[in-house]
């Protein structure tokens, strides 16, 4: 059974990325499963710190993107998710030229708070970052 209350496709998500940090960093949702979301991102000159490895803040942007998209999809129609807190543990380096692969799964999907676990892996499958995102679920206000 699917946890998603608002359905979309990776292509629809990507089409909205232009002009945002997701488009700038080439973050892509690659798979929407019944209770998980996958995404990936290249690691090039846009993503690295001066030592040629992925910048920790960029890892957090990828993790927050995956968790935020998942949280929005898990909201009831008429509601939306806003970030409350994110943390990340950087476990290994990911060098320039590699790819980051993310898996987002729910820890808890409540009425007013969602908590998501995001694992980021390198091309070789090694875990390089783990993150947890907490979102607040609020009523969507009509645009003025």
From TrEMBL:
Matches recorded under Pfam families: 4HBT (PF03061)
tRNA processing is among the record's keywords: no
Thioesterase domain: residues covered: 51-129
Superkingdom field: Bacteria
Coiled-coil regions listed: none
Keywords of the record: Hydrolase
Keyword tRNA-binding: no
Family the entry assigns: Belongs to the thioesterase PaaI family.
PANTHER family xref list: 1,4-DIHYDROXY-2-NAPHTHOYL-COA THIOESTERASE 1 (PTHR43240)
Listed name of the protein: Hotdog fold thioesterase
Lineage: Bacteria, Pseudomonadati, Pseudomonadota, Alphaproteobacteria, Acetobacterales
